[in-house]
Write the structure tokens for this entry.
Amino acid sequence: MLDVGWSSTARLDAMIDALHDLPDGVIGFRVSGELHAEDYHRVLDPAVDAAAEAGAIRIVLLFEDFEGLSGGALWQDTKMGTHHLSKWEKCAFVSDIDWMNHLVAVFGWMSPGEMKRFPTSELDDAIAWAAD
């Protein structure tokens, strides 16, 4: 597993948990509640930076019981997509939340690298796709 500077078994944040037992070179998170800019600064940005330094960014994002993003988080999300632009390879978006799936369907083409949507029942397939 990629060393991103924190334990993959530790609870990272009240809203973001690391996904465990991912293939080498893949990072992943389970996101719930409302995402804030601080969540990016403390958890997502350092993990993405470490992945980029190691080679490529391959990420799995699982959204369950997600309530949305604050304005600051939306801005951080936009900035994160443009940081390490050439390092983004794959982003597996995993969710059964209709409004999020619609947004990804409409705006996913703007993301660097390849993005693919998966229902939560296909989390294992999403992880395999990100690793391939």
